[in-house]
Amino acid sequence: MPSHVINQDQIDDLVDRAIEARQNAYAPYSKFRVGAAVLTASGTVFAGCNVENASYGLCLCAERTAICNSVAAGQQELVAVAVSAVPLAMPCGACRQFIHEFGKDITVICVNADDPRQRSVRSIESLIPDCFSFEK
Length: 136
What we know:
CATH topology: Cytidine Deaminase, domain 2
Strand order of the largest sheet: 2-1-3-4-5
Number of domains: 1
Number of helices: 4
Distance between the termini: 24 Å
Radius of gyration: 14 Å
Oligomer: single chain
Helix content: 25-40%
Shape: globular
CATH superfamily: Cytidine Deaminase, domain 2
CATH class: Alpha Beta
Largest sheet: 5 strands, mixed
Number of strands: 5
């Protein structure tokens, strides 16, 4: 399990924000709507959704959108990321690498937006144990 301790109220709020963000997804091609929310060490939550493009390589995942919103606000210390989709889906490989950039102990909570009780809670390290990294 992740080493950061977050309480159930924080998890529930993060899940609610990810589900809410999913409503704003722009997914005209795949129809696969995803929402995400990140919790920073300061307690602030930033949300994001997937944004597709006719040129698929330019698409943005919800997780990366939420993290970029956090970084743009000057908050780079992440504690947790919630991802909502139907059905429940784990972050893609690119998002796993992107999340790991901000810490190996980040909690990742994936939920089914239609039934938030259906969820998976893991550390990012367990999702991408041998990620690419430069020594910092």
